[in-house]
């Protein structure tokens, strides 16, 4: 069998769909910014033209200088390189990835959590010793320039990896391509990602992008918006801002503490690294996930103890489902005899893998998605109900998770064949037990 067979099945409705997603998702962060920019410019729940009056005219009147600054682009590149330096300079363990279809197992350097700790230290030092609020106000006040810089950088990076995927890797061999990204159509392959694991030396671009510049950038942006609110309120910080900073902080810390578990996600094992992931990691994650903190920076919502309690309760339930279910699967797959999972029921498959049918994974085939979504809902709830715009996250995430579950189902059906049907007849629900 050829190393890189042609892709014969399109996702996203093929090249036109891919082009549409690229244009649409590039516009979304700008629309969220210009459509919800200040206390009187974010529409209320029942639509009235008021807040958006003149929006189209304002958008049409924009010039490049309104959204792009070369000095901020240079600073953005410096931020990316700073994280590359930490990647090499900080100690880290080498964890093997999954077995690739060419039989190889690539090593991954795991030190993302250390990079986060160092970055927290740098933020503290900057805040304490070099101008206090100034750097962070510079970050929050220039949000749109950072956004354009990240969009430009992520697109250039996608062009780079696409062009480079045509090289012949030593020893005179083709690069290993993603099974879904080798259709031969330039637009589609550029979007989906042609090469599976593009690397520069030992730096794996896909995993680095997935866990460093965007995720850490999101943390820095949230802190910058917290400082922005403190400036607006003359030093005060609302309970809602503290909650969003802490809850998203928990998610960011959790992601980097469990850094190695990203190596088994479909993004790493199956998808190529193309525009979708480059843009998703560098733009979508930091700039749309920080929407709630940005909103609260100019709309200081006070929740009070009862509403804060409700937000916290949703967060705790969501996070526990997310973390416990993901950990249960990881432990089971690493060592099924571990006392924490040894009593769980599972089915054996012809491929040799075992599929859990009790515990968290007996409730629904992707119970972890439900927990993740509920946790995301708690972030949105911190913003109250004055406008639906900060609820964008849960709307996007619901679409992403339903689509992702379908893709994973297709992958598992192809891999496990009749064993997957047997598994689905035992664990009947996809994401929400008893409902979906
Ligand atoms: N915040 C965000 O924007 C995003 C967050 N996420 C989160 O990332 C996390 C990981 O998600 P994801 O990578 O999609 O997939 P999962 O962690 O849900 O893993 C799916 C894989 O697990 C294996 N598996 C499926 N069922 C069982 C079972 N019953 N027992 C044992 N193994 C099983 C299969 O792999 P195998 O072939 O090995 O059997 C399957 O392909 C989730 O919590 C998700 O919510 C994901 C995307 C975006
Ligand atoms: C808008 C667009 C073009 C879509 C690309 C989708 C991406 C935004 C997401 C695809 C998979 C993702 C993952 C995470 C963030 C969102 C993207 C990049 C993730 C890093 C979030 C934190 C989690 O703990 C995670 C590490 C499991 C997760 C991995 C997948």
UniProtKB/TrEMBL annotation:
<keyword id="KW-0756">Sterol biosynthesis</keyword>
<keyword id="KW-1207">Sterol metabolism</keyword>
<keyword id="KW-0753">Steroid metabolism</keyword>
<dbReference type="GO" id="GO:0005789">
    <property type="term" value="C:endoplasmic reticulum membrane"/>
</dbReference>
<dbReference type="GO" id="GO:0050613">
    <property type="term" value="F:Delta14-sterol reductase activity"/>
</dbReference>
<dbReference type="Pfam" id="PF01222">
    <property type="entry name" value="ERG4_ERG24"/>
</dbReference>
<dbReference type="GO" id="GO:0006696">
    <property type="term" value="P:ergosterol biosynthetic process"/>
</dbReference>
<dbReference type="InterPro" id="IPR001171">
    <property type="entry name" value="ERG24_DHCR-like"/>
</dbReference>
<feature type="transmembrane region" description="Helical">
    <location>
        <begin position="272"/>
        <end position="290"/>
    </location>
</feature>
<comment type="similarity">
    <text>Belongs to the ERG4/ERG24 family.</text>
</comment>
<keyword id="KW-0560">Oxidoreductase</keyword>
<feature type="transmembrane region" description="Helical">
    <location>
        <begin position="242"/>
        <end position="266"/>
    </location>
</feature>
<keyword id="KW-0472">Membrane</keyword>
<feature type="transmembrane region" description="Helical">
    <location>
        <begin position="12"/>
        <end position="33"/>
    </location>
</feature>
<keyword id="KW-0521">NADP</keyword>
<keyword id="KW-0752">Steroid biosynthesis</keyword>
<keyword id="KW-1133">Transmembrane helix</keyword>
<feature type="transmembrane region" description="Helical">
    <location>
        <begin position="143"/>
        <end position="163"/>
    </location>
</feature>
<feature type="transmembrane region" description="Helical">
    <location>
        <begin position="72"/>
        <end position="90"/>
    </location>
</feature>
<feature type="transmembrane region" description="Helical">
    <location>
        <begin position="373"/>
        <end position="402"/>
    </location>
</feature>
<comment type="pathway">
    <text>Steroid biosynthesis; zymosterol biosynthesis; zymosterol from lanosterol: step 2/6.</text>
</comment>
<dbReference type="InterPro" id="IPR018083">
    <property type="entry name" value="Sterol_reductase_CS"/>
</dbReference>
<keyword id="KW-0444">Lipid biosynthesis</keyword>
<keyword id="KW-0812">Transmembrane</keyword>
<protein>
    <recommendedName>
        <fullName>Delta(14)-sterol reductase ERG24</fullName>
        <ecNumber>1.3.1.70</ecNumber>
    </recommendedName>
</protein>
<keyword id="KW-0443">Lipid metabolism</keyword>
<feature type="transmembrane region" description="Helical">
    <location>
        <begin position="111"/>
        <end position="131"/>
    </location>
</feature>
<feature type="transmembrane region" description="Helical">
    <location>
        <begin position="302"/>
        <end position="322"/>
    </location>
</feature>
